[in-house]
Amino acid sequence: MRIRGIELVALKLKLKDRFETSFGAVDEREILLVRLEAEAGVSWSEVVADRDPYYSGETVETARHIIREFLAPLLRETAVSGGRDAFRICSRVRGNPMARAAVEMGIWNLEAMEKGVPLSHLLGGNRSRVAAGVSVGIQESAPAMLDKIAAYLDRGYCRIKVKIKPGKDVDIIRSIRRRFPDIHLMADANAAYTLDDSPLLAALDDYRLMMIEQPLSHDDILDHGELARILRTPICLDESIRSSHDCRLALQLKSCSIINIKPGRVAGFTESIAIHDACREASVPVWCGGMLESGIGRAYNVHLATMPNFELPGDISESARYWAEDIVEPTWVLREGHLDVPTGPGLGVKVREDLIEKYAIARERIV
Ligand code: OSB
Ligand code: MG
What are the structural domain ranges in the chain? Predict the structure, then answer.
């Protein structure tokens, strides 16, 4: 296929609730959308970078720069056969996985549209619905946290993840466990601890957490291996896994027993599949992470999570958990704790261009 048009559209979307993690708090998201045009039709995809480089080194602005100045020219030069070929072409750019992922995943979608199949089929997925978890930000107080969790459990979420940071960890987990003895519960530290904190982290072993996500440094693989030999709670890596190579290192060093795959963090679907497969080979389950995506980014996550080794509920929540109004139709809604996988060609959701217009703060045509 030939990519005939590339457009970047930046949106500002207000979150219903402030979302706080160990690295900061957000009230609204700036979301950069990529609109690709080819013979098969129009494909929308989403850059998951934030405005600030606090989760990863990329920002909305660096992604815009990389797509405009480097990825778009590379695509203008050649025909692309599909998603895997797009990965190869975009790999000339080092790093910048979130910018590359938005372009690569948009082309996977075009390939699915061209073949007339749902994206999930192209990825080898075999589920008709995916289990939904919810990620709950750090709250002002324990009662506020318990109320939030109770409301999400009422909605039917299959598992609850809570953000923790030094000073808001063991006590809060203890009170959650007291109130909800049987729920599937886990904690995400977003790199807030060091190996010196291992006694404190070991205190979490008493609360039957499904896992602790990214307790140590964002770029560490070695120390997590050491910590894994101290804790009984399984370790899941998020920030540290930026490629299938990082995944192989982590598996070899036994740094984790679960991996959170965010396609944006690993440069797209081609690497997501490689990580999925390597983990499956090693009997390490994976789950699909989230980056507070709009309904478009969420659609990609839903399709990815249909693959067989996505054995644990992902951070794939319904539209209403984030936004007053989502930019796809139908919006994402929970049914018995799951999201249904769209069955139409490609993403299988209708993109609301009227709402994109409404929330747009910048628009630029590159090709
Ligand atoms: O660490 O998983 C994370 C959101 C932004 C950045 C990092 C993370 C998160 C989440 C939210 O946990 C998951 C979601 O999209 O609901
Ligand atoms: Mg995380």
Answer: 5-116+351-365, 122-340
Q: Which atom of ligand 1 is nearest to the CA of 163?
A: 12
- What spacing in Å lies between the alpha carbon of 3 and ligand 2's midpoint? 33
Superfamily per CATH, domain 5-116+351-365: Enolase-like, N-terminal domain (3.30.390.10)
Assign domain 122-340 to its CATH architecture. Alpha-Beta Barrel (3.20)
Quick: pLDDT tens for 100-126.
999 999 999 999 999 999 999 999 999
pLDDT in tens, 255-299: 999 999 999 999 999 999 999 999 999 999 999 999 999 999 999
Atom 4, ligand 1: which residue's CA is nearest? 291
Q: Provide the annotated active-site residues.
A: 163, 262
20 lines ligand 1 (CB under 6 A): no
d(CA 240, CA 46): 22
Segment 359-365 shows an average pLDDT of 98
Confidence at residue 250, expressed as pLDDT on a 0 to 100 scale: 98
Q: How far is CA 348 from CA 40, 43, 294, 339, in A?
A: 14, 11, 15, 13
Residue 77 scores a pLDDT above 90: no
Atom of ligand 1 nearest to the CA of 316: 16
Beta carbon of 136 within 6 Å of any ligand 1 atom: no
- Ligand 2 midpoint to CA 163 (Å): 9
238 lines ligand 1 (CB under 6 A): yes
Q: What DSSP letter does each residue of 151-176 carry, written as one string?
A: HHHHHT-SEEEEE-BTTBSHHHHHHH
Q: What is the DSSP secondary-structure string of 198-242?
A: HHHHHHGGGG--S-EE--S-TT-SHHHHHHHHH-SSPEEESTT--
Pocket residue to mutate for ligand 1, from 21, 287, 323, most atoms within 8 A of Cβ: 21
The token pair that represents 310 in the structure block: 């996505």
Provide the percentage of residues in the chain whose pLDDT is more than 90: 99
Give pLDDT tens digits for 133-165.
Answer: 999 999 999 999 999 999 999 999 999 999 999
Position 89 scores a pLDDT of 98
